[in-house]
Design goal:
Strand content: 15-25%
CATH superfamily of the largest domain: Endonuclease Chain A
Low-confidence stretches: 292-315
Number of domains: 3
Radius of gyration: 23 Å
Helix content: 25-40%
Mean pLDDT: 84
CATH architecture of the largest domain: 2-Layer Sandwich
CATH topology of the largest domain: Endonuclease, Chain A
Strand order of the largest sheet: 4-3-2-5-6-7-1-8-16-14-13-9-11-12-17
Distance between the termini: 39 Å
Largest sheet: 15 strands, mixed
Structural class: alpha/beta
CATH class of the largest domain: Alpha Beta
Length: about 500
């Protein structure tokens, strides 16, 4: 019979103290900034259940991986620098983000069928390389169609790399392996649950969505590669979502980010010799050195994409100026959170936001409240009921506080999965990050920042029409029981 060790009260207290000291060392000495709710949840868990709480914290609690020093980028310069707000471009440069560049083409897709066609067009146009990162690759019609097309491209001689989050695609992660591997597609799964914890934390998920063809053509946004994002599940309409295609420097910046993710998925945690922004600059230089992006002579003139021009005179204010804005454990700073808070403070006329899950930290809530009190039109579009009920419960207090202070919170009757932000007529964001603390502090995320007049107007119109289809959220206090339950859920929501 196995006899379990019996600890004296003093030994138990010493173990609890050691666990709390470990928490302090990991979070404070290594500067792992945390949401207050998350800090409280971890401290209570370690104190109440030290023999379980401490191992769980060591496995899942680390918020950053290797923390390379931020490589400050040069201040915005060039003929297009004046077309973007300095508060945004200077902040992003200071946080190590590759600078904004003009794009040859930017197109948005709000309709699921159009988005699927755009995605398949980008995949089909690849002649040399094709790099895909997704949180979900569904075991359904869309997942099978994309897998078949990737296999076809690989058989045609294209180097195809597929990076899939192991938890996001847990139910379908192996469904398409036979087809893909037989064709020569390289597949990596991001941080499997059963892995050496020294090679990454299971709690750190890759939520980025991007497809890059030949380093010059990009498809990105909020959509995963599954039915509900494009054609809908049987008997259900597709979710309201956004994606976009771009040609030019935005694709080279996304490819530079993918290269880092591909390395992390292999378990290489040591900081690379050069950072993300430097890799983006090298990719961009290679693009510019090529006579054409695609080497295959079989392409027609309409299929070829010329590299972005180098303007020699001031540019028109309707140019498609954009930059790729990543954030996550692989960056020293919480880039997207910093940009959103700064945007709320700099907004003068309007701040439009759309997100499926709204569980922000106190800093972002306070910034939105102050913007509304300054007279800024703040509109927040949320689904009336999302696919994650806990997130719906956790958002209750924040939604009521915003609604009570003049924020126009709209609850859309359909499942809204798009992630977009518009600040005045100066900046628009579209990509993978939700307005919740998991996306802004834990996940690997990426958004495209658009400074072009046409792109900002398109996203503002879409958010406005989507919000108008919903009803205003109520500021009425809930019942005592619901208020308690919302508080309990919000305490652990940071880790959900």
């Amino acid at each position: 019979m196995i006899r379990l060790p019996v600890l004296s009260p003093l030994e138990h207290a010493a173990f609890v103290a050691a666990g709390l000291l470990t928490y302090v060392v990991v979070t404070r000495v290594r500067r792992q900034r945390r949401h207050p709710y998350a800090a409280l949840a971890w401290v209570m868990g370690i104190a109440a259940f030290p023999y379980l709480g401490l191992p769980v914290f060591l496995l899942f609690g680390t918020r950053k991986t290797v923390r390379p020093a931020t490589r400050r980028q040069p201040a915005p310069a060039g003929p297009w620098a004046a077309l973007a707000p300095l508060w945004a471009t200077q902040l992003l440069a200071a946080l190590g983000v590759a600078g904004a560049r003009p794009q040859a083409l930017v197109r948005f897709q709000a309709d699921g069928d159009a988005a699927l066609r755009a995605l398949q067009d980008v995949i089909g146009a690849a002649r040399r390389t094709l790099d895909i990162c997704t949180y979900v690759l569904g075991d359904d019609e869309v997942g099978a169609a994309i897998a078949a097309q990737l296999a076809e491209r690989a058989r045609a001689g294209v180097r195809v790399r597929l990076l899939v989050d192991s938890i996001g695609s847990l139910k379908s992660s192996r469904s398409h392996d036979a087809v893909l591997r037989a064709a020569g597609v390289q597949i990596r799964r991001f941080m499997p649950a059963l892995r050496n914890p020294r090679r990454g934390r299971t709690n750190l998920r890759n939520h980025r969505k991007l497809v890059v063809a030949d380093g010059v053509r990009l498809w990105g946004g909020g959509r995963n590669l599954a039915n509900e994002y494009f054609i809908g599940r049987p008997g259900e309409p597709p979710w309201l979502d956004l994606s976009f295609t771009a040609e030019g420097a935005l694709a080279t910046q996304a490819l530079a980010l993918f290269e880092g993710d591909w390395r992390i998925a292999l378990g290489l945690r040591r900081a690379p010799r050069i950072g993300y922004a430097e890799r983006a600059a090298l990719h961009d230089a290679e693009l510019r050195a090529q006579p054409r992006p695609y080497a295959a002579s079989a392409l027609t003139a309409t299929q070829r994409v010329a590299p972005p021009p180098m303007p020699m005179r001031p540019m028109a204010d309707d140019i498609a100026l954009a930059q790729w804005v990543p954030s996550g454990p692989d960056f020293h700073e919480d880039i997207l959170h910093a940009l959103l808070v700064s945007a709320a403070f700099h907004a003068e006329q309007r701040l439009l936001l759309a997100t499926p899950y709204f569980v922000p930290d106190e800093g972002l809530i306070e910034a939105l409240l102050l913007a509304a009190k300054r007279g800024v039109q703040v509109t927040l579009a949320l689904p009336r009921q999302s696919n994650h009920r806990l997130a719906d419960w956790a958002r209750g207090r924040a939604v009521r506080e915003l609604a009570e202070n003049g924020v126009d919170v709209r609850l859309v009757p359909h499942m809204l999965h798009a992630k977009a932000v518009v600040v005045d007529d100066a900046l628009a964001l579209c990509g993978s990050a939700n307005l919740d603390s998991r996306s802004l502090f834990i996940n690997y995320e990426a958004m495209a920042a658009f400074y072009g007049r046409a792109q900002i107007a398109w996203l503002a119109d879409w958010i406005g029409r989507t919000a108008a289809s919903g009803t205003r959220a109520s500021a009425t206090p809930p019942s005592w029981g619901r208020d308690i339950l919302e508080g309990v859920v919000a305490t652990v929501a940071f880790q959900l």
